[in-house]
Amino acid sequence: MKFRQALFWDTDPKRIDVKKNAQYIIERVADFGRDKEARWVLEHYDKALLRRVISKSRCLRPRTKNLWLLLLKNK
Q1: pTM listed for this prediction
Q2: What average pLDDT does range 4-18 have in this prediction?
Q3: Taking every annotated instance into account, which residue ranges of this chain make up the domain DUF6922 (predicted)?
C-alpha cells in the first residue's frame, strides 16, 4: 500500500516497513486513517496483533481505542 504523507508526517512513507513498523502503522491508521487505509490494516494484519496493539497503545485517543476494540470484537 502506498501511504499518504499526511498520515505519516514525521517520516518518509516510502521507508516504512509493514512488518517492522506494524505498531506504528496500526496506531496511525487507527487514529488518522481513511476508510481505505483502515480496510487495508484490517486485511493485512492478524486480528490478535491488532487487538494487542490497540489495547496497549498509549498514544491513541480513548474514543479511537474504544471504536477499534468494538470493531475487532466482531472479527
Answers
A1: 0.91
A2: 90
A3: 3-53
Grid cell digits, residue 25: 502503522
* Residue 30 in grid coordinates: 487507527
In sequence order, which residues have a C-beta less than 8 Å from that of residue 59 and are 6 or more positions away? 27, 31
3-class DSSP state of 2: coil
What cell was used for 63? 474514543
CA triple 65-10-53, angle to 5 deg = 25
Domain boundaries of the chain, sorted by first residue: 13-73
User: Alpha-carbon distance 26 to 69, whole Å?
Assistant: 13
Q: pLDDT tier at 3 (50, 70, 90 boundaries)?
A: confident
Are the C-beta atoms of residues 18 and 28 closer than 8 Å to each other? no
- As a whole number of Å, the CA-based R_g of the chain is 12
**What is the rounded CA–CA span in Å between residue 69 and residue 62?**
11
